[in-house]
């Protein structure tokens, strides 16, 4: 009842006709007279009172109304117990949250011949890293204040199951320090996968370096890195940002055979139901997908070119020789001459003689 000051009492039009009149005695005290001048024995009045809740601050957990009936007559003390009623209305915060996100850069080129100055190196680590920034923004359309929420973000972290981790999250910062994030730190940010020493493998990889690989955390079998952030209260029509600074180990990409690798990261905002928050159904989307692409420059390494030329030359010469021999043989006419006995081995120690035509090279002079 202490909240009545924030509630606006709206009197019902029909109350007067029923002999009911209400007046606000104090800001939180409403008094209604029922059945003036008297109430007949065993009679019942039904009436409703409407309150406007649009002025509530959203701080309250429940609205409680204490309703007390009091008679002008003397009432027996043993029948007083049912004269008081406590009505409780739990309050929910109804919000419509949305999330948006941008990446910087949205694509980059990697490969052996790409200038190392495009990448950064961490102290005493050999790897070339591509810095990537993601900025996410959570917005509360209202109508209520959002008392608490959390955001989860997942990045595809391996090119294949069992592969090395690609990302190294350096920092996650929530705007105005109104939230905290937790993520798993990559203990070994610089892993250079073992070089395939076999030159044929390298050449094969060069020729098969085609096609697009899509890494999407929604797909089964994709290993993802997930980070979580908790936000403190977000007022209506306010927004909060999360800045994520991370590094991508390009050494791992160089060993992959795709020419384009697309990373699809997903972020989702969730309201905390324990804080009596409900998300408006069919409101703005609570999920966002941010995409960036790693493009291979498709230039083979120097020695690979050498090997490709050498092997091509060798294969060319072999084919030429084969054709030459074949043509030389075909150009000779083949004719059978006289019979020539052939001795065939026969099981049981015996032999049989067969008279087979033999082949004779026909040429001038014979
Ligand atoms: C990422 O953000 C930092 C700090 O704002 C900035 O210095 C850096 O240039 C950004 N990097 C990219 C790739 O946008
Ligand atoms: C974040 O952490 C700090 C210190 O650990 C704490 O004071 C603050 O309440 C936390 N904020 C949220 C939104 O969890
Ligand atoms: C966020 O809140 C959940 C539940 O209250 C808690 O388990 C988790 O540790 C919090 N995370 C951070 C980064 O504060």
Automatic annotation (TrEMBL):
Domain of life, per lineage: Eukaryota
Signal sequence interval, chain numbering: 1-19
Membrane spanning residue stretches: 304-328
A GO CC term assigned to this protein in UniProt: external side of plasma membrane
Gene Ontology biological process terms from the UniProt entry: cell adhesion mediated by integrin; cell-cell adhesion; cell-matrix adhesion; integrin-mediated signaling pathway
Subcellular location: Membrane
Stored InterPro entries: Integrin_alpha_Ig-like_2, Integrin_alpha_Ig-like_3, Integrin_dom_sf
Bilayer topology: Single-pass type I membrane protein
This protein's UniProt keywords: Calcium, Glycoprotein, Integrin, Membrane, Metal-binding, Signal, Transmembrane, Transmembrane helix
Segments forming domain Integrin alpha second immunoglobulin-like: 13-90
Start and end residues of each Integrin alpha third immunoglobulin-like domain: 98-293
Gene3D superfamilies (alphabetical): ntegrin, alpha v. Chain A, domain 3 (2.60.40.1510), ntegrin, alpha v. Chain A, domain 4 (2.60.40.1530)
GO molecular function: integrin binding; metal ion binding
Name this polypeptide is given: Uncharacterized protein
Native source species: Rhinopithecus bieti
